[in-house]
């Protein structure tokens, strides 16, 4: 599989990943230092990305993200039928519970936010569309991992380090596998400070008629607000929301494994 990958494309996206809210500009020196390549190669990558519109030069040797990326982002938004379907459902969940909610997909071993409803309350968690989160320490991620085939899950465990994000992160493979089996049996996943201490979340899957998971939705917020009682109410509301989403996407009743596609 690795032989089918293009290293230059991977490197180009690694350069784009260097841009953050705190870093709006990069230089060849920054790229060389962060990615471990020489300055000449870094400069060539930057000029190539400028040529295709992914970057713009704001001064000699200094680059910012270009408008080609804005255009591509707009196309993703316009074509995101799943996100469009889920957004009003998330808005309803957040109004009912009073806490933030989000929907995700699973991509490149990480959870990616595709829709999000803000709670408008203080001490909210900073998540936005496009945010990527580790799978092993999030409610969404544990749902996705619980759905992987055995070989896929084994590959994940062999390639993704289980770094300790908080005192509550599961970093033992056997313990994580036990947790995923528990998630699989109960049909939902919870996170109690595993990614960030003091933050709780609960997530449920959205399934096709054949029972394949296509997205997950959650409620999340500070632990002192997401009490056990609120988590129980959130779970009930999320399950109803998942059923609403499944009916909107596929019609009829709740999808069941073994039914037609």
Low-confidence stretches: 253-261
Helix-strand category: alpha+beta
CATH class placement of the largest domain: Alpha Beta
Question: Any idea what the shape is?
Answer: globular
The CATH architecture of the largest domain comes to: 2-Layer Sandwich
CATH topology of the largest domain: Beta-Lactamase
Query: Which sequence of strands runs across the widest sheet?
Result: 6-5-4-9-8-7
The number of distinct structural domains comes to 2
What separation lies between the terminal Cα atoms? 29 Å
Domain HTH iclR-type: 6-67
Domain IclR-ED: 68-251
Keywords: DNA-binding, Transcription, Transcription regulation
GO molecular function: DNA binding; DNA-binding transcription factor activity
Structure description:
Helix content is 44%, strand content 20%. It is α+β, with helices and mostly antiparallel strands and 261 residues long. α2 packs across α3 and α6 packs across α8. The longest helix has 23 residues.
